[in-house]
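All the exercises in this workshop are built on plain-text protein records. Sequence and backbone structure share a record, each on its own labelled line. The structure tokens are whole numbers drawn from a learned vocabulary of backbone shapes. The record below serves as our worked example for the rest of this section.
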Amino acid sequence: MTSSVRVIPIECKFGPISAFAYYVDAPEPAIIDTGVNVSALQDIEPTLAKHGIRIEDIRWILLTHGHVDHLGGAYAVWGKTGRNAKVVIPKKEARLLRDKKEQIVDYMSLQGKFITDPALQEKHITMLTTDIGGTIEPDLEVVEGDSIHLGDDITLKVIETPGHSIGSVTFVLDGLNWAFAADAVQMYGGFSGLPTIEIPSLYRNSVQRLLEDVRPNRLFLGHPFRNNNGEMVSAQIEGEQVAAVLQASLDMDAKLSDLVKRTLTEEHSAQTHELYGPFGAIAAEIGYTGDPRNLPCAFFVTMNGYHEELLRSHIK
């Protein structure tokens, strides 16, 4: 059984935010997530070099999900390895790796559909496609129960943890029970002030599963997230804090679900706010003053998710 594995967190910075990639030291070294297009040269290669590691020696590129800030740098990292590294992505989101146009489809079905300015939509689309270095045909499209063997007895098991996105997975280091959950766990939200949750019911189940069944000893997240006091918390969590972070994520989910049920009446849904669209009443209720036209921004994505959940409950 593995007694210890070196994991190197790599902060990939772009604009006012950052996302974490994780290097897993093994006979067949792996990197979990890759930031955006510039991250390979700007952050990943220099950080690894400080530890005496060559980016060229990476043998696995493991992507937790298909959002640009996690897969955008995959093509550049893959190129640095001489295209020898195997590229792995959740099966449900492989389309986002092999075709940039699918990123636009997702954008237009979520945040983009609430952006009424065509010029701003076009700006966002340009940003999205620029932040992806290139398209790749994945070597493996993983699902629940799959395993990635990195040599010796170092194995990462795949657990499906959707909700933040439709196909998000968590890679769990067998034996140590370290969970690389990336954005599957959001606490009280990140830079924009709200968690990014596309499908609340799936998100709820995923976090509950991590808390009650997986029970990780360490948790590696995709970004620093806020606690209930609004303070940013490290993206690497261990010990008793793991359960506290998972419970905080469930607490915020319950808060958002209740808020939408109380606030989005038929009367309010018919009203359109200049900045917050059909969710002006919610913004007022929680004192939200962010600009949802920024990219990335959780507001429209998350409110849309909880609103759709509410509509489905009425149909039942």
In short: Residues 36 and 68 are 6 Å apart (CA to CA). Residues 240-263 form the longest helix (24 residues). The chain has a mean pLDDT of 94. DSSP finds eleven helices and 14 strands in the chain.
